[in-house]
Amino acid sequence: NAGVTQTPKFRVLKTGQSMTLLCAQDMNHEYMYWYRQDPGMGLRLIHYSVGEGTTAKGEVPDGYNVSRLKKQNFLLGLESAAPSQTSVYFCASSYVQGWLDQETQYFGPGTRLLVL
Amino acid sequence: GDSVTQMEGPVTLSEEAFLTINCTYTATGYPSLFWYVQYPGEGLQLLLKATKADDKGSNKGFEATYRKETTSFHLEKGSVQVSDSAVYFCALSALNSGYSTLTFGKGTMLLVSP
Q1: Where do the DSSP E strands lie in chain B?
Q2: How do residues A8-19 score in pLDDT, each as one tens digit?
Q3: Mutate to test the interface with A, among B102, B104, B106, B108 (most CBs of A within 10 A)
């Protein structure tokens, strides 16, 4: 199993450009997440999905959109990139066994994005 | 809202020293607690977890005990190695609009020298 994979690994954008980050998992997990990691801020949840065709906002959703058309894929889009979106983006997925057994999240290797 | 507070780093130790990284949390209900580790250039990996009060999570020589009375989940290791150098994140999992999401601390960098 490849686990959670992310493409691309690194990207440079100019302000105003758009792009899509792709996350794929082969563990048949229901839940998928997008986080951003910034120095001194830890990880902050952008959007998440609890199943195919469903998405929800996290802590910092502004400027991002997501789609979950297939169970194994979770796409993060930036319609008009801004320098404030320079960050490392991590995707994660998890399998929910029950609400009392809070799930373990499995992370991808990250995408480093620089917006000039 | 839910929050996690970790001690600021970097924590600098010599090989074979004892490690403690403090973590306290604020949450409603009964969260599960996690420690994740991030090695340079990589994503986060689960190190250990505890799902209820007084549970002890352990892995690779690391331990943490879920203390409800002090709302803490401190990470400890008796003898660190150079290979333990990484960033460690404490996190809690709680219900958000009916679904479970993770809230992370800001991370603590550990540097172990030979």
Answers
A1: 3-6, 11-14, 19-21, 23-26, 32-38, 44-50, 56-59, 62-65, 75-77, 86-96, 99-104, 108-113
A2: 999 999 999 999
A3: B102
